Amino acid sequence: MASRKDIIVSEAFMNYVNAVSENNVEDALRKNTRRFRKLLRNIPKKKINYAYAEGKWTLKELLQHIVDAERVFVFRALHFSRKDNTPLPGFDENVWAITAKAPKRSWGDLIDEFTALRASTELYFQSLDEDQLTAGGTANGKASNVLGLGFVCAGHVAHHMNIIKERYLNEYPAKKKKDKKKFEPK
Q1: Mind listing the pLDDT tens digit for each residue in 131-175?
Q2: Which end of the chain is more exposed for a tag (fewer CB within 10 A), N or C?
Q3: What are the contacts of 32-41 at 24+ separation with CB within 8 A?
Q4: Residue 17 lies in a domain
């Protein structure tokens, strides 16, 4: 069975791959789905239209981005697994975010869309054999393979889960610089 050692992705996507600890793509997707759905269920309603800084996406926009990116990654995987050698273009996530109109959507619909899409992603990757998983191609001028894109799907969500926890929910406050003075009790 194909495993992490068989992954081919661009250097930029290795950050996503490294955000996943599992060795098997099916396990990575399944566990990632469970973690993300739990996080989404626990986001307070007052936060869904919140952006942590000027010019940053709201949580609704971020979730729409996650859905859009997963669709792209899975399409690339499908394209490569079907042995189509046509190079694929990149996509401008910022243009997509603006034109998606996520603020007009309900939070529940966005969660339902992610859930349905991820279920489809999991079924797709379960259907592949080793030859299909190791098939590759070019997207946005970079080589990758189907297996790598499966790990990118899980890792992209893991990456954004950390951002949600740190910047939107403040679960990981920035660490304070340690005072260089030695503590001396009075």
Answers
A1: 999 999 999 999 999 999 999 999 999 999 999 999 999 976 555
A2: C
A3: 32/153, 32/154, 32/157, 32/158, 33/118, 33/122, 35/158, 35/161, 36/114, 36/118, 36/157, 36/161, 37/111, 37/115, 39/161, 39/164, 39/165, 40/111, 40/114
A4: yes
pTM: 0.91
- Residue 112 in any domain: the answer is yes
The tally of domains found in the chain comes to 1
**Residue 89 counted as domain residue:** yes
Cα dist from 185 to 133, 176, 178, 181, whole Å: 62, 21, 17, 12
Alpha helices in the chain (DSSP H): 11-18, 25-41, 59-81, 93-100, 107-126, 130-133, 146-163
pLDDT at 182: 42
pLDDT, tens only, 85-103? 999 999 999 999 999 999 9
Domain containing 129: what range?
A: 4-168
